[in-house]
Amino acid sequence: MTRNDSFQPAYLKLGAKKLMERSLKARGFLSPCVLCPRQCGADRIGGEFGHCKTGLVARVSSRNLHHGEEPPISGHRGSGTVFFTYCNLKCVFCQNYPISQMGVGEPADAAQLAEMMLQLQEKGAHNINFVTPSHVVASILEALAIAVKQGLKIPLVYNSSGYDSMDELELLDGVVDIYMPDAKYADNDTAERLSKVDNYVEVNREALKEMNRQVGILQMDNDGVAQRGLLIRHLVLPEGLAGTDGTMKFISEELSKETYISLMSQYFPANKASIYPEISRGVTSKEYKTALSEMHKYGIHNGFIQNTPP
Fold it and tell me: What is the CATH number of the domain that holds 112?
């Protein structure tokens, strides 16, 4: 679907005052912390770190123009990624584990986050792409309230693991333009073993339905750059462990056959994956082709595929 260049990001319609109100509401979920689905109960305002190892202030590992995202996200000028440190999952195969689990990054308060966004916009970014944002929604909203006053006007991408609570998503309704969540698993036993979470499937599917309700099918401008909508990432795992068939069936029946999917073949055994025999190798060509066939079986044809593994 396409839109014209008069598109206005959702958060501009809310304005700085309402964004700050959302930020204050988000802070209310931090002490005790029940922001993400883990609901670990840490007093993050009082200085405790949650399960995500994060207190009140977000940490950022990098911010740059990223040209390697899906085509409608990177476009021709790049996506303005702000990569947050830590995560509310503990995936044993995480390819970014130095950031997500070892804590590589530096603290960034709301004013600093706002400045990062504005600098990326100045560099020509098509969007601001918040990577691993689920545990720092309060910081993001406070920073947006500042950045809007200073001229931020490009779409926002919420690039998450898909393990997002309804409380988070309620705060982001009318704020986020593009949701780009993972749909990692179709089986909770696999999720518990590989990501150390016991209710991923139910949480993820409820979140996907809410994201879809908020922004709908991915819409692009006349240059093919995303402006609004949902793009679901699904990483194919060895031995069919990602549950592609079940995930695509859910998307087809509960969301829409028109949903855009990024079917990823890039898995390799990073982090602790080598000690888990079933994921201690890359994905084969046969496994990826099977996943692609399962996607098409349910009538899903919109989206992006990667090179077939050797």
Answer: 3.20.20.70
Confirm whether 81 is domain-assigned: yes
Q: Are 271 and 228 in contact (CB under 8 A)?
A: no
241-286, pLDDT tens digit by residue?
999 999 999 999 999 999 999 999 999 999 999 999 999 999 999 9
User: Following DSSP, what letter does each residue of 14-26 receive, concatenated?
Assistant: HHHHHHHHHHHHH
The domain in which residue 224 lies consists of 10-29+55-305
What is the pTM (predicted TM-score) of this model? Answer: 0.97
Treating both helix axes as pointing N-terminal to C-terminal, what angle do 200-215 and 188-195 enclose, rounded to 10 degrees? 100
Residue pair 33/27 in contact (Cβ under 8 Å)? The answer is: no
In angstroms, how far is the first alpha carbon of the chain from the final one?
33
Tell me how many degrees the CA angle 165-41-34 measures, rounded to the nearest 5: 20
Residues 6+ apart with CB under 8 A from 148: 11, 12, 15, 16, 19
Number of independent structural domains in the chain: 1
